[in-house]
Amino acid sequence: MHSTPSPGKDYARIISYTNVLQQALRDLSAWGGVRRASAPDQQLSSTARWRCRRPPPSAAVVTTTANGGTRAEVKVGRKVTFAGTVEVPPGTGKVVSAQWDFDGVGSYKVTGKFKLTDATGERATTISHAFAKPGTYFPALRVASQRSPDGTAYARIENLARVRVVVR
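Request: output the structure for the sequence above.
Response:
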């Protein structure tokens, strides 16, 4: 779901759409994001033809696993190995942050480090975590990609993936 979440439990499940809008506005304000087709031999109808010069803002594709699967079942105190992979579409930037939320409340306190896995540009991260109480958890990996190299928090396109962990 994409919305404007406020910190708290919903923050673990919702991705803000605001930064996608920020990137789109940057593209338009650069006056290079959209231009009118103007080849001399091309006739324009009453509705002018427009072409996009840059790819539209696009979120990275994120996947996660726990102990190698989409669901893990462990005993209290046993470590679970989480893996996340991220693929950023060509021309839409690079991964600038990756954060894990293990308890599912939107805290995203654990930072992941990514490494390039192959020539396709896919990146991967692994991390271990143990749960102290029984229950069903939905740990999430939230990733941000950004086209602009200026380091600003605006125009970071976020996406997330979750995995189920049952602790007995």
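Residues 79 and 130 are 4 Å apart (CA to CA).
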